[in-house]
Amino acid sequence: xxxxxxxxxxxxxxxxxxxxxxxxxxxxxxxxxxxxxxxxxxxxxxxxxxxxxxxxxxxxxxxxxxxxxxxxxxxxxxxxxxxxxxxxxxxxxxxxxxxxxxxxxxxxxxxxxxxxxxxxxxxxxxxxxxxxxxxxxxxxxxxxxxxxxxxxxxxxxxxxxxxxxxxxxxxxxxxxxxxxxxxxxxxxxxxxxxxxxxxxxxxxxxxxxxxxxxxxxxxxxxxxxxxxxxxxxxxxxxxxxxxxxxxxxxxxxxxxxxxxxxxxxxxxxxxxxxxxxxxxxxxxx
Length: 285
Hints:
By secondary structure, the protein is of the alpha/beta class. Helices cover about 40% and strands about 20% of the residues.
């Protein structure tokens, strides 16, 4: 198939979870013989003049602002598939409904993810598929080595990501040691890392080093204040056998608790194949 994947950013722009998942999915699609182009918020609209057998839309917040004709164009496509990564709160209700009702399939990352959409927007989603974030089990696994008795926090420090909850927990548990492998635009967060004697700030860690990091410590802290459809970092950490200190707002952790370690690893590891198998079956219909 000739495929166009439309998303706000690629890994060349930022190394977020959605960008990494999309990159894995595109890599697997190309290995299956598909010709895949990617169109981002700063892309040249001439690619939209070509014919595509399948259009996959992903995160659209930035691109809908920089290129406002993109969502009507997506809706007009005969074979459009929705690959939802977030809560989609940026779209007006009528445009969101049109986007989802135009698609041949709507992929959500967990049952929790899909149920939150129905609760928030109504029960109008059709041809729904649940496929988790793709995680490579040959890279992320339990090394079966001794771990340090420290609590890890990873990723971008942001109020919605539970950073304030993390610092409150560190303050309330001065007898425990914490490690932050992340970054922040918020100077208050950076100063707090410096002030708290039981918090070690590592800064950004390359993604290739994350399996070793997840295997180094006994526990990881992540308590978002708004629901997470899946949370790639939590899923990678679970692959590596680290204990998760969290709440009930993380779709990936809820899925893990429902099916257990082995099935969780199996479904995430085979997610790219599952995604393309469902698309290829759709093309044959």
